[in-house]
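Entry:
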Amino acid sequence: MLNKAFQEKKLSPPQVLVLGFLVVITIGTILLNLPSASSTAKSIGFINALFTATSATCVTGLIVLDTGKDFSSFGQLIILILLQSGGLGIMTMSTMFAFLIGKKISLRQRLIMQESLNQFSIGGLVRLAKYILIFTAVIEVVGATILFFYWQRIYSPLQALYLAVFHSISAFCNAGFSLFSDSIMRYKGDLIINLTFVVLIILGGIGFLVLLELFQYGKNGTLSLHAKLALKISLILVLIGFVIIFFIESNNPSTLGDLSFPEKIYGSIFQSVTARTAGFNTLHIGSMQNATLFLIIILMFIGASPSSTGGGIKTTTFGLLILYVWSSLKGKEEIQIFKRRISQDIIPKVLTVITLSLGLVIIMTILLSYVEGEDFIKVLFEVVSAFGTVGLSTGITSSLSIAGKIIIIITMFTGRIGPLGLALSLIQKREPEMIKYPEEKIMVG
């Protein structure tokens, strides 16, 4: 249906992308609403099913029900399939499925993939999709293997395998879904668990293009400007987050205060990494200082890198904004980094993405504040967590009203598609105007 509509030029690539996510969410909602998906053999209700399906497909991790307790094995499997589909990208998976069964990938399908993966051209997209699947499979298998050998000391081999596979996929897809009621807070002092999750989260959030370049670095010996900027901004954000969380929370007995020095290091690094879109937590988010919560809000808003499993405005978008402001302050007409000039054409897109994202967060925060009446910092945290497809919460998610849940559902969906992508799917592209009007200047600042 989607392909036929697109072939008849009724739908643009952004519209197909939006519709693809809506179809998957709808199917997921229907399946999760079945009594067999619940641990009590009773339907969890339409809104709860829709919320969970959206959260899983958009790899967010916000939950209104306990994944490990309230869902049956069937329900958990549906959630796992949804978050894997959402993490890889629905169009990437459908394209590779068509390729595997011997179907030719058409130009129109490549255009949809280009939109989905945020690429500049359609060249090499099928090859990139192959690498995405290979990288995903290898990384998730390695992560699951490490977790299996760790958990088999505690659980039966079958249960350990199930936990390992679920959490490895969830961590790499930056989904934040856990089968433990406390996320992974019980392992806040465990080096193996912390390190495994941090590596999986970083690999999932750095972007498939960057992973491919790092894989080929030994052969080429070079990295693109995109990869360098994504890696540098990611490293800076992790370090800044680690230092600030460590110093603010070290004296807070409800978070880092009562932990040993190594455990404080683990906790600070983990929360700095996971705040960028993963959604797992080893510390109690609701007990953090307001200053720490605001820092995490900023990290969640920035998010992961382009073409990754994460959300947010993206690291490169944030990096280009900082470079643009710095160049303007120094009176430079060009943005320069790593001995390269940044194309001026990208700046309007950067400003558009950030403006639309801020606008969405502001509107949804006002609406949720009005509907729920919770503390402002908690409401803002919840909205940005949904927008950045993070999944961290101060604890208000499960108590949201139906209206509040709908607001968060819309925010999660928009955050996964991207405000710009959603806007392009809704706005009809117009032909360039032939008339040029007189130019005038306006005072700003």
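The first strand starts at residue 335 and ends at 337.
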